[in-house]
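Task 17 of the worksheet. Students: predict the tertiary structure of the chain below and write it out as structure tokens. Keep your answer in the requested format; marks are given for formatting as well as content.
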Amino acid sequence: MTIEVNNISIQSYPALAPKFSFWIKWYRNEENLSEEDNTRYYITEYWSQILSKLNPEQVYKELGCPVLHYDDTFCHTNIVIAWLELYLGETATNSEVGFTIKSYLEKIIKENSNLDNFNSIRASYIYQKSLKLEKLSKQSNKQFKKATTFLKQFAQTLEDNFNELHLVKSKEKIHR
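Model answer:
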């Protein structure tokens, strides 16, 4: 949904709005948590109450396939950008805030989701899509079976690339 404010179009997506209950607890920092722990609390709640219930492809399309750009403040928009990066492989501009949010979100998703023995969230997402197609293919024709096979192979390729990249980064850290 687009809203006009002072002749400026602003994209709005109500399903991405934070829930007041966790926002106010985060804002007031009622638990007197460190800034880092309070940030993790917010990202965890935003993931479990908002993002985990949405389809990243659908959200991305309905937002008009935007160019992803982190701003320099902590906000739910940056969490959504990190989510789209992790699930869809979309690339956002680099920023320290974005990197931190993406790291926290990745850990939260991995701790709270069934990734079907994948390390890559994107690979797991593609694999889960292939399972849904496979289920449909049992009711349909050979086209679905070809698509299912392709998605499974693609998921494995993504996982192999993810693991190789992280192995290279680990080796680079060891040699420093």
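Marker's comment: The longest strand covers residues 2-5. The first helix runs from residue 20 to 28.
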